[in-house]
Amino acid sequence: MFSFFKNKASAPAVRYADINGKRVEVRPKETLLHAALRENIDFPHSCRVGGCASCKCRLLAGKVKELTDIGYILSDEELEQGYILACQSVPQSDVSIDVDLSAQTQRKRLTGRVVLQQRLTPDITHLKIQLAEVLDYKAGQFADLAMASLPGHTRSYSFASPPQPDSSVSFFIRKVPGGAFSTDVNERDLIGQAITVDGPVGEFWLRPSDVPMILIAAGSGLAPILAMLQHALAEQCQRPVVLLFGARTQADLYALEQIRTLEERWPAPFEFFPVLSREDEQSDWHGARGRVTDAIPTLRLAGAEAYLCGPPAMIDAAAALLVAGGVRREDLYADRFTTVADALNTSSVELVD
Do 184 and 155 form a contact (C-beta atoms < 8 A)? Predict the structure, then answer.
C-alpha cells in the first residue's frame, strides 16, 4: 500500500567546473565546452563532436562521462596525463580542469575574396581565397569559413596547401547532400565573393621524425595530406612515404599531377596507391579496387608513423588495422571529416559540410 507514496526520481544534479580557477555551473547533460562558452570563456574549440582535439584540456579532479571514444584523438601520453575533450565530457561530479587558452590568441579572423573556383571531381571543388595578409598555420590544420550570403553557416575545412607567400589559402570542398555551404561552393559562381577565414585550428600536422610515413586519405581528406607533403618537401624531408588514396571511381581521383610531382621530387622512396571502391568492372582501370583499408595489410607497418584523414568510419577501420600491423598507438594521428548530418546524430550543434 505504500507504493503510492514512492518518491519521484530526483532531478539530475547541477555540477560545477573549475576552469583555470573560474567556477562555472554545468547543467545536467551539458558538456564542459558548452558550459564554458555559455559563461563567455574563450575556450579553444572548433568541431564540437570530438573530431579535432582543439578543446583538449586536463582533468585535475573529479569524474566525467565521455560521450565518444577519444582513443584515436588523444595520444596515450595525453590520456595517461588525464587529458579529455571538453566537447565530449559531461561531469559526473564537480570537476577541476586546466586548459591552454593561448591557442585562441593564435587565431585570426581575416576576410578575403574568392579568386579561383575549380571543379576537381563531380562533387569536389578547389576554392582559393586571396587574403590581405598571410595567415600563419601548420600544414594539416583547418579553418572555419563563413560567407555573408549564408549567415549562420560557418563550416570547417582543411587547408589544401601550406602557407603561401602571396597570402592565398586553398580548400577542397566536397558537396554534401543538404549542405548549404558546400552546395554553394560546388554550384554557384563565387568568384569575387567575400569569405571570412577564421583559424588556424586543429592538432593534425606532420610531427618531426625520421621514420617512414603512411598517409591514408579518402575523398576531400586528401587536402591536409597534400599540404603536409608539400611542406615536408620544401623542408627537404628524407622520410620514405606510402600514400593511400581512396575514391569511388576514376572520375573521383584528383590532384594526380601534384602527387606525381611530389613523387618525382621526393628524395626518398615515395609510393602512391589509389584505390577505387565503385569503379565499373568493365572499365580500363588496372589499379587497386575495394576499400582503401583493404591495402593496409599489404604494407610494412612496424616502425612507421601514420596520418589518416577522411570519414570517421574509414579512420576507425584503418587505425585498427594499422595498430594490429605494428604501428604504435602513439604514432597514429587522425583528422575526422564530419558533416552536419554526422554532428546532428551526436550533438545539437552544427559542424561542417
Answer: no
- The two beta strands, 241-247 and 270-276, are parallel
Tens of pLDDT, residue by residue over 152-163, are 888 999 999 999
**Tens digits of residue pLDDT in 252-297:** 999 999 999 999 999 999 999 999 999 999 999 999 999 999 999 9
> Which CATH fold would you assign to the domain 15-103?
Ubiquitin-like (UB roll) (3.10.20)
Predicted pLDDT of residue 47: 67
Query: Is the CB of residue 263 less than 8 Å from the CB of residue 270?
Result: yes
Buried-exposed string 268-278: b where 16+ CB fall within 10 A, e elsewhere: eebeebbbbbe
* Secondary structure E strands in 124-253: 124-130, 142-147, 155-158, 168-174, 194-201, 213-218, 241-247
User: In the Cβ-directed half-sphere of 158, how many Cα atoms lie within 13 Å?
Assistant: 32
Q: What is the pTM of this model?
A: 0.79
**Model confidence at 44, in pLDDT bands (50, 70, 90)?**
confident
Q: Which of 202, 247, 252, 263 is nearest to 45 (CA)?
A: 202
Answer whether residue 4 shows pLDDT above 50: no
pLDDT grade, residue 233 (50/70/90)? very high
Strands (DSSP E) contained in 193-301 are 194-201, 213-218, 241-247, 270-276, 288-289
SS3 category, 204: coil
C-alpha cell at 203: 592538432
The bridge status of strand 288-289 relative to strand 270-276 is: parallel
Separation of alpha carbons 113 and 32, rounded Å: 36
Residue-range domain boundaries for the chain: 15-103, 106-202, 213-340
**CATH 3.40.50.80 fits domain 213-340:** yes
